């Protein structure tokens, strides 16, 4: 498969790519893409790792599954392509940024701008069959992305992990909280946000305060 992934991540993940489970996963994904419409496009499966090199990564946001609608997914969690209507969760993310940082809601839901500043927008599962949410869960992707989280925790310092919702919060056990900042809240989906579990978490300003305190450039959210 002709995927794009930054050389720094290839170096860090080479051993993971060689493991039996990942070889099996690769076979499953190739077959799925040959038989069904799947998202994101093949070359963007590892887009999160292509936009945010290993050394440059300073924030990790964890999603669960790519969007499964036509033209939405671009390989970055919560992100959609230019010109695509914001999904409800993304709209609530932008509303929280507006409230937290007094920034206007952007014209596009494409979050490449964040990724290019060192925000790893990582879905736990990197692919999905069209119109079938969760269809590629349990195939091996979660084992791979858990290894990525552990790798970042072990090899890097002072990373901000943003864990939104019950699924993402479970990943906290993979992270060394003595050397990284873990921020948790409800999920930005309307179901959670409208119950008061999302708005007011101030994660974006808290992230920037932590980065600045530790000598890193803040994110232009």
How would you describe this structure in keywords?
9 helices; alpha/beta; 221 residues; four-stranded parallel beta sheet; Uracil-DNA Glycosylase, subunit E; two-stranded antiparallel ribbon
What is the N-to-C succession of helices and strands? HHEHEHHEEHEHEHH
**Got a strand count?**
6
How many H/I helical runs?
Answer: 9
Structural class: alpha/beta
Approximate strand percentage: 5-15%
**pLDDT < 50 stretches:** none
- Largest sheet geometry: 4 strands, parallel
Q: In which order are the strands of the major sheet placed? A: 3-2-5-6
Q: How does this model look, in words?
A:
This protein is 38% helix and 11% strand. The chain is built from nine helices and six strands; from the N terminus they run ααβαβααββαβαβαα. With 221 residues, it is α/β, with parallel strands linked by helices. The longest helix has 16 residues, at 20-35. The chain has one domain (7-214): Uracil-DNA glycosylase-like domain (Uracil-DNA Glycosylase, subunit E). The radius of gyration is 17 Å and the shape is globular. Strands 3-2-5-6 form a four-stranded parallel β-sheet. A two-stranded antiparallel ribbon has the order 1-4.
